[in-house]
Amino acid sequence: MSVSSPSSSPSSPLTPRTRSRLSRLGSETNIKVICRIRPANDAESRRGGKLLSVELETVVSVCSKEPGLALDFEFDRVFTEDSSQDEVYNESVKLTVEDFVQGYNGTILAYGQTGSGKSYTMMGPLNNSISQLRGIIPRISETIFESCKKRPDLAFNILVSFMEIYMEQIHDLLDPYSGTDHTRFMIQEDKNEGIYVRGLSEKSVTSPQDLELLLNEGLAIRTMSSTQMNADSSRSHAIFHIKLRLVNPTNKSTIKSNLFLVDLAGSEKVNKTGATGHSLEEAKKINSSLSRLGTVIYALTDGKSVHIPYRDSKLTRILQEALGGNSRTTLIVTCSPSTMNENETISTLRFGARAKNIRNVAHINMELSPSQMKEKLEQLEIDNRVQQVYISRLEQELGQWRQGPPLQSSETDEIALRDNKIAELENTVLTMKMENLKVAHEEELKMFKLENTLRRLNDKLSDIELINLNLRKHLIITEKLIESRDNRINKLEQFIANQRMQVQTESESFESKLAHLKDRIDAHEETIPIS
Ligand SMILES: Nc1ncnc2c1ncn2[C@@H]1O[C@H](COP(=O)(O)OP(=O)(O)OP(=O)(O)O)[C@@H](O)[C@H]1O
């Protein structure tokens, strides 16, 4: 059996010092990874076999047709063909949205092969009017407004923007007239705002209905086309961005948080989708952009990379905070259940398993109000004044000491002698300090190397623990299977024993009937006169 642990250990590009500083500011968490298996479509029901099975709520097993290839993948949660939109939202996404309203940045990403159910999960079915089928984004908007209403002490302001990255160009989905001048959109970074796209329109919303309307308007102009794998295939990465500003009117402090909801374009095997000409170019761009996302995830988790190539694509640059930064991130990997898509599904599950090792450090994004800043400044000024008083007292004492009674020449010589001695001693102390510093530096280097070795060992240990965990899970599953087989055997044995008893009873009754008949024949024969 193989297990899903990536070749290397969970790690992060942050140095231990930066990490500990960030940890003090916020909480460090792994990216949450959810797997969702969609129901088989018509073609799969007709021709494909069942590829995936889910024995536990967190493990999905691939039952490959290749002999000897059995893979288990562990995620934070696995949803099956029968899971509803409601379950997916409540059990995997709602918490991120509640954190978002508390001031944490959040990101929810859907990744998977074309036609595997990303848009269904994020938005809901196309042209849907059934409330239970609504996807994550419409449900999120309701939670946000409900949560904001529960905090009447704060004034809130919600802005949304909606963009797609199509063939590596940014398009504004809330401004159909933005035209073809894509150079007006620039990805920029700001100390307060984080990473954002300059030039993108932002619309203020005051109700879930407002937000849903904008979502649908944007979706209506998103680049879609029909492929052999999906009649309504999204050919772009769609990024819906919700900006929340919560202001405390009393002290004027502001909480600012950003939520990115990303429906990625689906990876595809061009020979399967039958893409040619322009569709082929689209597919190549989609695959190349997803492969850059994979490279970033690989670099974040291989435990070696110092440089993370976020700037290699627009998608990874925009998602920089979501991947290894200040964000609570959930990745939803979507899969077809059928053996017809075996390679694509295994590759999706591997992508999810690797991403699960990314560590983020999220913190509440709060800006102090002018009055809070003033308070802080005043406190600093008081501290400063206290220090100044202390310094002037010391200076006064020193002055008095310096002024002391007039000295005799023999006393001046004595003092000069001692001054020289002091200078000499000070020199020695300085030299010793330098020596100490050198030694401390060498010690620090050694410590650093030792820490590195320890970290590598720890990483190996967690790899082994992960493998061990998977093996134990596999063992549990196997034990359950054996137990269910044993039950079945017991039942069958019971059934056979019953059958035997029944046969025996029947044969005994048959024999007694036979004997009875025989007696009657004998009796009959005796009564017949011999002619
Ligand atoms: N969980 C589900 N339950 C019922 N139908 C689903 C489910 N997931 C997906 N589908 C259906 O499968 C088809 C493909 O889904 P969807 O368009 O969401 O895939 P996608 O991954 O977004 O594809 P692409 O990358 O090509 O855009 C749609 O008809 C959708 O309604």
Please name the defining characteristics of this protein:
3 domains; binds adenosine-5'-triphosphate; 10-stranded mixed β-sheet; 20% strand; 4-stranded mixed β-sheet; Kinesin; 531 residues; alpha/beta; elongated; 13 helices
Helix % is: 40-55%
Give the N-to-C terminal Cα separation: 87 Å
**Residues in β-strands, percent:** 15-25%
Largest sheet: 10 strands, mixed
What is the total domain count?
3
What's the count of strands?
A: 20
| CATH architecture classification of the largest domain | 3-Layer(aba) Sandwich
Structure characterization notes:
Helix 4 crosses helix 6 and helix 6 packs antiparallel against helix 7. Strands 3, 7, 8, 9, 10, 13, 16, 17, 18 and 20 form a 10-stranded mixed sheet that branches. Strands 1-6-5-4 form a 4-stranded mixed sheet, sandwiched between helices. It has a two-stranded antiparallel sheet with strand order 2-19. The protein is 50% helix and 20% strand. It has 3 domains: 16-33 and 85-123 and 130-367, Kinesin motor domain (Kinesin); 369-404; 421-531. The chain has helices at residues 16-25, 42-47, 85-92, 94-102, 118-122, 136-149, 208-221, 270-273, 277-301, 314-318, 342-355, 370-403, 409-527; strands at residues 2-3, 27-30, 32-37, 52-56, 59-63, 70-74, 77-79, 106-112, 155-166, 169-172, 186-190, 194-198, 203-205, 224-225, 233-234, 237-247, 254-263, 328-335, 359-362, 366-367. The chain is of the alpha/beta class and 531 residues long. The chain is elongated. Adenosine-5'-triphosphate (ATP) binds at residues 38-39, 112, 114-120, 125, 230, 232-234, 265-266, 334.
